[in-house]
From TrEMBL:
Keywords: Membrane, Repeat, Signal, Transmembrane, Transmembrane helix. One of its GO terms (molecular function) is catalytic activity. It comes from Streptomyces qaidamensis. This is Prenyltransferase alpha-alpha toroid domain-containing protein. It comes from the Bacteria.
Length: 404
């Protein structure tokens, strides 16, 4: 992710932003006001839907119920055809031919809204649009019709899986997303055994890309941004004839790259001074955990605990979300991430949530108390019965608001 926009140019923008002093970052001026429902205070032109989706998904992952207006803002960003653009300043104006549809933003929105629940119409239309712009090789580019790339194809796979689809059965001209990924995987036997490329270059050659590899591992496994530790497989690089082998090969590449640079990845942006790449490192942690390579994932998440605070504070909600995903994937407490409360920090970048979730100790205490307070249980049932009277009005009112 690289606070991650999967298109190469936007990934580059994200890295440059991380390397630029905070004073140079775009921020609201007195004449520039962004929606109050939006997470983050920087110009959302290129990443509004993306960062909103990641923020909502991360909050749901840790048991936090986001502010209703933030969820509603995201749903209203959808175009009539089901797609999402990176950001629509005025969602009351219909999308037209000039609206730049974005497969990555659409896929991130699907993953977030599916996790939150209650938005089946929105996600169904979005998935339908994604299927309609699938390339002949089975993959997706950042924009409809663009050449397939590993990052875009992988995040669409995550959206399809989240929505209950079987990604390997979503085909165009007999080609599935996994067929596209296999063509973007580097062969064994070289310096970059098992890595994924972002896209072939003009000569059709593949170059290893760590961020694409992290995305490719998740895509090959059919996973989205939120994962549980998987079952470890053989890390030996072998010819990738299946997506599972491609994922194992990619994980092997990431493990070696992380270990080589001190348990983190380095930025490879041309012309820039070498520096730690926090976003890619977080992505690699998630990918390795999904693959079951937990030893290196845990080493790298410990590195992130010690070193990522300044990056996250400068980069904003998507960065906090990435760290929460990495913490979740490794069983690390996101409310005590190197002494920082990532959940609180993410929440501070947007509207106050409806519920704040529970810490591990609070959840444990509730579990111990459950069943021991007979009268407490029946009191709760009575409250629910009374509250239930108003539930129909609540949803009816919300539905009317969404239709406005």
């Amino acid at each position: 992710m690289n606070v991650r926009r999967s298109a190469a140019v936007l990934a580059a923008v994200a890295v440059i932003g991380a390397a630029t002093p905070a004073a140079a970052d775009p921020s609201p001026s007195p004449s520039q006001a962004f929606p109050s429902a939006l997470y983050g205070d920087k110009d959302p032109k290129f990443d509004g839907v993306w960062r909103q989706s990641l923020a909502l998904l991360a909050q749901d992952t840790v048991g936090v119920k986001p502010a209703a207006k933030s969820v509603q803002w995201l749903t209203r960003q959808q175009c009539a055809d089901g797609s999402f653009a990176s950001y629509r300043p005025d969602p009351t104006t219909a999308c037209d031919a000039k609206t730049m549809r974005d497969t990555n933003a659409t896929s991130a929105a699907v993953q977030a809204l599916t996790a939150l629940g209650g938005h089946d119409d929105v996600t169904r239309k979005a998935v339908g649009w994604l299927k309609s712009v699938q390339n002949e090789d089975g993959g997706w580019g950042y924009a409809p019709g663009g050449a397939s790339d590993t990052n875009s194809t992988s995040i669409v796979i995550g959206a399809l899986a989240a929505a209950g689809e079987k990604p390997d059965r979503v085909e165009k001209d007999g080609k599935s997303p996994h067929d596209a990924l296999l063509k973007l995987a580097l062969p064994c036997g070289g310096d970059d055994d098992g890595a994924f490329a972002f896209q072939p270059d003009k000569k059709g050659e593949l170059a290893a890309n760590a961020d694409a590899t992290a995305a490719g591992v998740l895509g090959a496994l059919g996973k989205g941004m939120v994962v549980e530790p998987g079952k470890k497989s053989d890390a030996t690089c072998e010819k990738a004839t299946t997506p599972q082998q491609a994922a194992a090969n990619g994980a092997g590449y990431l493990t070696a790259a992380l270990a080589e640079d001190g348990n983190h990845l380095m930025s490879a942006l041309a012309g820039a001074e070498p520096q730690p790449d926090f976003g890619n490192t977080a992505d690699a942690v998630v990918a390795l955990a999904a693959q079951g390579d937990t030893a290196q994932a845990e080493k790298s998440v410990r590195w992130l605990e010690k070193n990522s605070a300044s990056w996250a504070a400068q980069s904003g909600p998507a960065a906090y979300a990435q760290l929460i995903f990495a913490a979740h994937a490794t069983g690390t407490d996101p409310r005590d991430f190197g002494g920082a409360d990532l959940v609180k920090q993410l929440g501070a970048t947007g509207p106050a949530p409806q519920t704040a979730g529970k810490t591990k100790s609070e959840a444990s205490d509730e579990k111990e108390d459950s069943g021991s307070d007979f009268f407490g249980v029946w009191w709760y049932v009575g409250v629910c019965l009374v509250a239930g009277i108003g539930i129909g009005f609540l949803f009816t009112g919300r539905k009317k608001q969404q239709q406005l």
